Structure formats: structure tokens, C-alpha cells
């Protein structure tokens, strides 16, 4: 009888300890959704170099004319500049932890037109995926990163190559839709989306 009572007492104690452990588990581990929200503070473009002068609208030169070789040109990638911050959904949480920090590892660029003509390789450049690696700390201020928003090869493919030497429709206006993908410290998937206006043309060389 004594052994039976001791065994029951151990079961009760174990159950109480288990309940206490569950009650101390952070919400971010219990819920499917992260407790962190990513805010894109700004999205800008920089022509031909990540340290170029940023602008809210990107003017992308599809053909940098070579004055020594008539009829030829150089094509260069263009860059986007994104600034992000991370905030907590649950404002009752006393302080953020590493579980709330978000690390981004990839992004996707998709081009769209206001008139609905969005066939890749015909109306707009092909979408593409890129790799990135940076962390945004929850309630830790903003983080800025540069990334390729127009690939070099896109300017060698239709429809951008048709704009070289003032061909085609001369100017092509699109919206770049950029989505970043990552996870918080608890392994929960997080994404954030931003937009940038781009005007493609064979701009006059200086």
C-alpha cells in the first residue's frame, strides 16, 4: 500500500511540474504564427551600383552606350535598397528575446504592369529569386540592406533588350514587387513585401 501511495504521489508531482513548464513556455513556441511583425520602412533604387544615389523611383538604363564602338553598349545590374524594422505583435510581452529576431535568407522579385500585361519575357522581365543573409532585431532599430532588383541578364533578354538604341516602345514602366523570406528565432516563417517603381529606357549617356 505504501509503495502504491508513493507511486501516485510521484505521478501527481510530475503532472504539476509539467503544467508549470507549459505555463512558462513563450507564446511564440506554442502558436503557429510568429509574435514578430516586419515593417518595411522604405524601398529605394540605385542605378548600376549599390552605393549609387538612392531614389524612390528607379530609372534603369538598359544600354550604357560605348562611344568608342558605335552600336554597342554595356549592361549593368541595378540595386534596391530596403530598410526594415521588427516589432512585437503582443505588446504585453515585457521585452523581446532572440526568439523574436528575424533572419532573412532569400527574396523574390516579380515585375508587374498597371495595364495588366504581365507575360514574363514579353511584357515584363522574368521574375527571379535571390539569396540574402541579414538579421533584424525585434525592437532593435532599423536595418538597411542592398540587393539586386534588376539582373544584368534581364537587359539582354526581351522586353528590355528591345529598348536599346531607342527601340520598341522607348520606355517601359513597371512595378517591382519584392518579397523577402525568413524565419524568427523560433523557426516560424516570416515574409515581408515592398514595391518600387522602375522606368526602363536607353537613357542618354553623359
Give the assembly state of these chains. Answer: single chain
Query: What's the tally of helices?
Result: 2
Number of strands: 10
CATH architecture: Sandwich
H/E element string?
HHEEEEEEEEEE
User: Which regions contain 5 or more consecutive residues with pLDDT less than 50?
Assistant: 2-31
Largest sheet: 5 strands, mixed
Radius of gyration: 25 Å
The CATH class name reads Mainly Beta
Straight-line N-to-C gap: 97 Å
Shape descriptor reads elongated
Helix content: 10-25%
Structural account:
By secondary structure, the chain is mainly beta. It has a single domain, classed as Immunoglobulins (Immunoglobulin-like, Sandwich), CATH 2.60.40. The chain has two helices and ten strands; from the N terminus they run ααββββββββββ. The protein has a five-stranded mixed β-sheet, with no helix packed on it. Strands 1-5-8 form a three-stranded antiparallel β-sheet, with no helix packed on it. Strands 3-4 form a two-stranded antiparallel ribbon. It is elongated and about 65 Å long. The termini are far apart.
Features:
206 residues, disordered N terminus, Immunoglobulin-like, 3-stranded antiparallel sheet, 13% helix, mainly beta, 10 strands, 5-stranded mixed sheet, single chain
